[in-house]
Amino acid sequence: MFSTEALLRGNAPTNIVLEPFVSECTQRSVDWSSPEEGQRAFAGLVQTAVIGGSRPSSDGVGRHHYPRAFPPPGMYLRSLLKRYTSMLEQKGGVEVEDNDLADAMASYAFGSANRRGSAAPVGPAAGDGAPNPNDSGYSSYRLPDGGLVGIRVHPHHNDLGVRKVWEAGAALAEYLLAHPEHVDDRIVVELGAGGGLTGIVVSGMCHPRRVHMTDLTQDCLSNMEHNIEVNGDWLAERGVNNDNFNDDAEEEGQRCCTCGYLDWEQFADEGTPVDLSLKYGAVRISDADVLLAADVVYDWKAIPDLVRTTRRLLLQPNAVATSARKAIFATTYRNKETFDFFECELQKGGISCDYVPKEEIDSLDRIFPCYFIQAREEVRICTMSIAATSPC
C-alpha cells in the first residue's frame, strides 16, 4: 500500500522497506541487485530521504519550492544499508559496485561522520555501534495536500514520548483528516502529545482556532517545540501561527499551534486552581472545547488521573456549553485488564464513551505508515462527553 520511499521516511522496519523495493523493481523488470539498476535505485531512495523531497511543488508561476529535508536517524540508515548489502551477499556474493551506494555505506553504515539531522555520530564514533540516546532523526510523511511534515525522534531515548511516532497518534490524525468537523473552528488541547504529529497535522489541515499540545517531561516538551518550529513554514502556508509565546495571535485572527506543560496528577484535583498546575499558558487549557489524546491508556496507575483530568477539562467554566465539549481518544488495545479499568473509571467519572465503528477505522485513508508494532485493527477510537446522568 505504501511506496518504498514512504516507508523509508516513516522509519519502517528495514524488512518492511525492502519487500516493496524488490517488488517495485520486479514490476519494472529491473534487477534489484544489479549495479546499473537496483543498486543505483536504492542509493537514490536513501539520498532522497536524506536531502529532502524528490518532488518539488510549484506556485503556479514557474517557481518551484523543495520541502525541507527530514533525514531519518543515522543508525536507522545504517541498519537499512546493512540489510540491503546482506541481501546482495545472500543472492550469490553480489558486490556493491554503484558509487552512490558505496558512498552511502561509507557515510552511514561504516563511517564516523556526524550526519545531518543526527545529534550524534554513527558507526565507530558512536561507540562501536552501541545505541546512543542522543541520536536523532525524523519520521516524515507526505500529506494529501502534497506537504511534507517531519517529526524528530530519538529512537534509543528512555522517554517514550520522543522515541517514535506512535500508531494510535497516526490513526487519530487520519480520523480527524477524514472528519475535520470535530475540530473545525474549535479550541483544542491534546494530552500526552509526544512528538506532536497529531496536533501539528490537525492544526494545519483541519482548521481549528487553536491547538495546544501538552506533555509532562522537559525532553518531550523541548522536542515538541522543535517539531513545531521545523514545520513552521508548512503551518504558516496554511494560516497557522506557531509562536509559542504570542498570546495575541488568536485575537489578531490567526490560527495557532502551541505546546506546554501539563501534569495530570496535579490537574486531576478539581479543587486546585488551573494556573497552579501549569508552568505557562493556563488559559490555553481552560478555554478548550475539544480534548484529544492518543496512546495514553497503557499504564493502569496513571488512568485515574487521566480520567479526572479529562473530566475537569470537559467541565471547565468557559463560554462553551458542557454539552458541546468532547474528548476524542485513540487507543492501542494492548491489555484487556487495563482497558477494562479505563472504562470503569470513565463510568465512575460520569463520562460517556462512544466507539467509532471498526469498519470506519479500517476504511480510513492510510496516510502515515506507522503501524509496525501493533496492527491497525488494534487501534480503537472513541468520542467522550459528560454523560447526561452525570452527578455533576
Structural class, please? alpha/beta
Principal-axis shape equals elongated
The total of beta strands comes to: 12
Mean pLDDT: 85
The count of helical stretches stands at: 15
Distance between the termini: 47 Å
Q: Give a short account of the largest sheet.
A: 8 strands, mixed
Side-by-side strand order of the widest sheet: 7-8-6-5-9-10-12-11
Helix content: 25-40%
Low-confidence region ranges: 53-67, 111-127
Strand content: 15-25%
C-alpha-based Rg, rounded? 22 Å
The arrangement of helices and strands along the chain is: HHHEEHHEEHHEHEHHEEHHEHEHEHE
Describe the structure.
By secondary structure, the chain is of the alpha/beta class. The chain has 15 helices and 12 strands. It has an 8-stranded mixed β-sheet with strand order 7-8-6-5-9-10-12-11, with helices on both faces. A two-stranded antiparallel sheet has the order 1-2. Mean pLDDT is 85; it is low at 53-67 and 111-127.
Jot down its keywords:
single chain; 38% helix; two-stranded antiparallel sheet; alpha/beta; 392 residues; eight-stranded mixed beta sheet; elongated
How is the topology of this model organized?
Blueprint: H1 4-9, H2 14-27, H3 35-51, E1 57-58, E2 64-65, H4 74-90, H5 99-109, E3 137-142, E4 148-153, H6 160-163, H7 167-178, E5 187-191, H8 197-205, E6 210-215, H9 218-230, H10 232-237, E7 240-241, E8 255-261, H11 264-267, H12 282-286, E9 290-294, H13 303-314, E10 326-332, H14 336-348, E11 351-355, H15 358-362, E12 379-386
Parallel strand pairs: 5-6, 5-9, 6-8, 7-8, 9-10
Antiparallel strand pairs: 1-2, 3-4, 10-12, 11-12
Helix pairs in contact: 2-4, 3-5, 4-5, 7-8
